[in-house]
Amino acid sequence: MKPALALGAAAGAAAHACEPELRGSDLTRVESARYVLAYRSAPARIAVGEHFALELAVCGKDGAPAPESLQVDAHMPAHRHGMNYAPVVRRTAANRWRAAGLLLHMPGRWELRFDVRAGGAADRLTRNYDLD
Questions:
Q1: Count of CB atoms situated within 10 Å of the CB of 99
Q2: DSSP secondary-structure letter at 62?
Q3: The dihedral sign for the CA sequence 123, 17, 41, 70
Q4: 69-76 sheet: strands from edge to edge
Q5: In 10 A of CB 20, how many CB atoms?
Q6: I need a surface site. Which of 25, 63, 116, 117 has the fewest CB within 10 A?
Q7: 24 by DSSP, 3-state: which?
Q8: What are the pLDDT digits (tens) for 81-113?
């Protein structure tokens, strides 16, 4: 009887689990109350003054609606400014996007911002990134 209870509890937990459909050891993961986002940069090492792209995947937690759109931006809180370029974000598959044309033009602490929109609401997920 106890093994059946344990199996039922595990199945219930899996039903509410959210794992973005992006694999690899080079991923960065960010969470909000409703979403989990995973991303990797191309190239893997972001350099000052060089364009890069992000490959992203998002999934909804506990029955959150599927993401409808995603916006990506970067901001330097200490300097109160963002990037000089606007990235282009394109959906590549269900719950997958690619953001191209990002460029961090100076060293320091940047805040990567990800706005996930779904069901008439938006969640902002952020991740600090220290650029040398």
A1: 22
A2: T
A3: negative
A4: 81-82, 69-76, 108-118, 121-131
A5: 19
A6: 25
A7: coil
A8: 999 999 999 999 999 999 999 999 999 999 999
Q: Compute φ and ψ for 8, nearest 5 degrees.
A: -65, -40
Cα–Cα dist 82/80, whole Å? 7
The residues of the chain scoring below 50 in pLDDT are 1-15
Classify 18-131 by CATH class: mainly beta
Phi, psi of 15, rounded to the nearest 5 degrees: -65, -30
Q: How far apart are CA 90 and CA 33, in angstroms?
A: 24
Q: Are 39 and 22 in contact (CB under 8 A)?
A: yes
